[in-house]
Each structure stands twice: as C-alpha cells, then as structure tokens.
Amino acid sequence: MLKKLFSRFFIVALTIILLFLAEVALILGLGYFLTYLIILLINEEFAASWGILIVQAISGIVVFITAIHAANRDMVPETKIPWILCIIALGLFGVAIYTTFSSHRPSRKSRKRAVQSFENARRFEQGGVSRARLDAEMRRWSDVSEALLTSNDAALVYENTKTAYFPVGEAFRDRLIADLERAENYIFMEYFIIKKGEFWNEILEVLARKVKEGVEVRFMYDDIGCMGCVNTFYPKKLQRLGIRCHKFSPFVPVLSNVHNNRDHRKITVIDGKVGYTGGINLADEYVNINSPFGHWKDTAIRLEGEGVKGLLLMFLKLYNLSAKDAPEDFAPYIPETYEKFEGQGFVQPYGSGPRPVYPRSVGEDVYINILSMARRYVWIMTPYLIIDYRMREALVLAAERGVDVRIITPHIPDKKVAFALTRSNYMALIKGGVKIYEYTPGFVHAKGFLADDKAAVVGTINLDYRSFMHHYENAVFMYDTAAIPAIKEDMLRTIAASSLQTQEDAKKNVVWRWVCEIAKLFAPLF
Asked: What single DSSP character describes residue 195?
C-alpha cells in the first residue's frame, strides 16, 4: 500500500486533482467576488435583498454563453453534446471543467516546434511513386494514397520495399533482435511503453553493446505511457550507457490538457534500410512471456528498402520535437542507395496526430477511405471499438453495399471501462450488417485493416477517440505487397479462434448495457 501511495502514478494523479480543485476554487471565488462587488457598488440594501438572485442570474448568463461557445466550436461533433451537458448540469463548476480540459490542441510552443521540425524534413520528402503510376497500377486504391500525399505530413508512396508480417509478438521479437545485432551505423527506436523485464532487458543489452561498437543509438519513449514501468530518471541511466534517450512530453505539475497528446507510435529504424512498426510495445506481455489477459494477440510489419525512409523521417521529426535542440540535418541518416526489391507492390508509411499539427484526423480518414473503396471485404483487428458517428456510418454503409465487414475485438479486456464502451457499439453495428468476433483466447492488441486481397494497414492506430484525436500515431498503408497474403491467413486463423457476436449477446445484462450507453455519451471527453 505504501509503495502505491508513493508511486509516481499516484503522485501525478494527486497533483492533477489538487491543481484542478485550486483552479475551480479560483474561478468560482473570483466569479462570486466580482458579482457581489458590482452589487455592493450599486446599493448595499439592494444587495442584501437581491444579491443571491443576481449572482444566480450572472452565473446563468456565464453558463449560457459557455454552452453556446461549445455548440459552435470547431471540434468533433460527438464532443459537443457531453460538454454542453457538463456545463449546464454543473454550472460554474462545469464551466471551469470545460475551460480547463476541452481543448485537444498541443501547446503553442509544441505546435511551433512541430512546424519547424516538419519544415526541416520537407526537402527530404521528395520523389516516391508518381501519381500517374499510382492511378495506373493501384486504380481505385490510389485515392487512399493520394489523400495521404496531400496531408501536411507528406506521406510518400514507395516501391522496391520488401515486407514481412509478424502475426504474434514472439516472431517479431526474434527478428527484431537479429536485425539490431546487424546494425552498423545507427539504431533509432520510438515506443509508447517500455517495461523492465526479460524482453526489454534483452533489447537493452544489445543496444548497450552496439554503442560500444560505435553505432549511434537514439531512443524515445512516452513519459505517461511508461509511468509505473520505469522511474522518472530512467533516461539518465540510458544516457550513461551512451544511448541518446529522451522522454516525449514529460509530465510537469501544470494543469493542462497538453498531457493528452501522447506519443503512441512504435517505430524501429536500423541504418535507414530496415524498419518496424505495429502494435507491439517493448514489454513482456506483448511477446507472451507473461499472460495477464490470456494470449496477447499482436502484430507488426517489417520493411526493408526504400519505404523505410518514411519511418525514418517520422522518427526524426518527433525526436527533434522532443529533444528541443536546434533542428538537425537529416541528410546523413538517409542512405544514398537502397537494395532493389522489384515486384513487391507499394508501401506508404504515414503519421497521424492532434490538430492543428495535423489538419485532419488522418488515421480515421484512411480507415474510412478503405471502407469506401472496398468491394468484397474489409477485415479489421482492434483492441478498442470506441467510434464516432463518421466511423460507424462508414462501417454500416460498407456492409449495406454488400461488403463483408468483420471486426475482431478482445474477449478478455485489459481495461474494463474501454471494454464496456467497445461492447456498447456492438448492437448498432450488428444491426447494420457488420460481423463482430471476440478473440476468445485472450486480448487483441493488433491494429490492422485488410481489404479485397489488395490493400492493408498495419500500425498503431486504434478505432477510438484517443488515437483519432489526441495521440501521435503511425501506420503503413500497403498495396499488393508480399505481406498481404500472410495478413489474410492470420485474419482467418484469428476469426476461427473467435466467437461471433449476435444481437442476443449484445442484449445481455440490461442494466449494464444502459450504464455503457451513458458512458458512451462521455467517451469523446477521455
């Protein structure tokens, strides 16, 4: 108990609560003080008779104006109703909550640094496959790629890239370690979670040894993602080993919604020629060394060749944002030549993140575009199904067109609230013709789309508000690559090990279902 009370997680949570209560007290106290001051300046006798009513009237006006502001604000529509309810139900207290937590934007300083970092990379985001070739060879699927090409984080399409798919963390672990051992110039790694244990210790031993061999090693992890996994001074330990380590957006005791903007990416780049991404973090449960939630089903993709450049630039841009040094020249890290892997299709690594760093919800847009383009099937794996109206309609519309839409979710949850919100979406989707399967052996952490034997996405982007609105994310869009048959085979095996959900399943436990429906209303706020 003492260990929990003095843990960093508890201290951070307590700090946030105390800071918020102090701000609420300040807002409420200042509001009442100013109101009474105005009344007293008019007439003290009048104040004694009508003071409370005037305070309530002024408070009501403030609440009304704030609710109007929320209704007309440029934000995801699903977030407006819960904020308006919060403001009206809680009065000035709700106003305090809204003004403190309603923005999902990074700080002005972070946005400025992001712009600098993106501009610094712009001159390297040249080339790739031409639009004319995309239209000719990808046909309708070129629309998905071209939407990414026009985002402010230009995601080039590459050919001559070999792809390998890993259906479980254990296979990923073995290949990753082997590739790290072969590094000659540099190793760059960026992960949401690292946790002390067998898997991380194995990687750390290789990284420390490669530093001694003259290999440059950089490592970045998310501070809040790793809270409770490593201590706050862990970067100094890695730096003593010669590893250039930074925490992304370190927690500071300031009440701000900037803490929502986490680095949820998982990227490894080795010598600019080999790269990895997917759902797998560097902790034992991800590779089934331990099993807190049954079998941990996760996936990753390995790129070799030109396409690795996309992952490299994504890493360098966010690393420079976190390192807070002067923008560096990326040129020394980009290989002059790549090995040719012809006939391997096209790959398009891309990033997603909070507005206005990214002007649109890139991760959600790609998924919706795939659903719009598909003619035969779209199969999906996601740990969380906490979706907005746009995504739900895209899923249902695809199913109504006759597309075989299947979604694989966990049967054993890692977070009970997220699991309840996931199941609360089953009924509407099942009625709309979407098939939902729960992976009975355990927990699905994979994030992937597969469509029509031609297009696929593997990456870090969940079907939930956090991935779409708050987090920095990444994925790889693939067309006609060697990995796609392996992805399909894995999807079929996973579906075979899962249970198909019915309307009767979704109707179970009426009371709990209504609790979930109410919780779903406020899901966009968290």
From this structure: -
Under CATH, what is the fold of the domain 108-139+159-348? Answer: Endonuclease; Chain A (3.30.870)
Question: What does the alpha-carbon distance between residue 518 and residue 424 come to, in Å, rounded to a whole number?
Answer: 10
Residue 470 DSSP code: I
Judge whether residue 355 has pLDDT over 60. yes
pLDDT for 10 equals 66
Residue in this structure with the two tokens 């006609």, named with its chain if needed: 480
User: pTM to 2 decimals?
Assistant: 0.88
Q: Compute the distance between CA of residue 521 and CA of residue 525 in angstroms, rounded to an integer.
A: 9
Q: What is the mean pLDDT of residues 241-251?
A: 91
> Does CATH number 3.40.190.10 belong to domain 362-525?
no
Taking only the tens place, the pLDDT of each residue in 499-514 is 999 998 888 765 667 7
Closest CA to 79 of 508, 465, 485: 465
Q: Which residues contact 129 (CB under 8 A, 6 or more apart)?
A: 156, 157, 158, 159, 346
Q: Where are the domains of the chain?
A: 8-101, 108-139+159-348, 362-525
> Strands across the sheet with 186-191, in order?
161-166, 300-305, 274-278, 267-270, 186-191, 216-222, 244-248
Cα separation values, 20 from 24, 27, 92, 99, 100, Å: 6, 11, 14, 11, 8
Distance, in Å, from the CA atom of 311 to the CA atom of 459, rounded to the nearest integer, reads 11
Q: Tell me the mean pLDDT in the region 240-244.
A: 96
Residue 51 scores a pLDDT above 60: no
Average pLDDT in the 471-485 region? 96
**Is there a common fold for 108-139+159-348 and 362-525?**
yes
C-alpha angle 400-401-406 in degrees, rounded to nearest 5: 65
pLDDT of 95 strictly over 70: yes
Q: For residue 467, what is the DSSP state?
A: I
| Backbone CA torsion sign across 156, 161, 165, 171 | negative
| Contact call for residues 61 and 130 (beta carbons, < 8 A) | no
Record the tokens describing residue 230, joined without a space: 């490593």
Quick one: pLDDT band at residue 32, thresholds 50, 70, 90? low
Which DSSP symbol is given to 166? E
218 and 232 in contact (C-beta within 8 Å)?
A: no
Q: Which residues on adjacent β-strands are paired with residue 432? A: none
Length of the chain in terms of residues written: 526
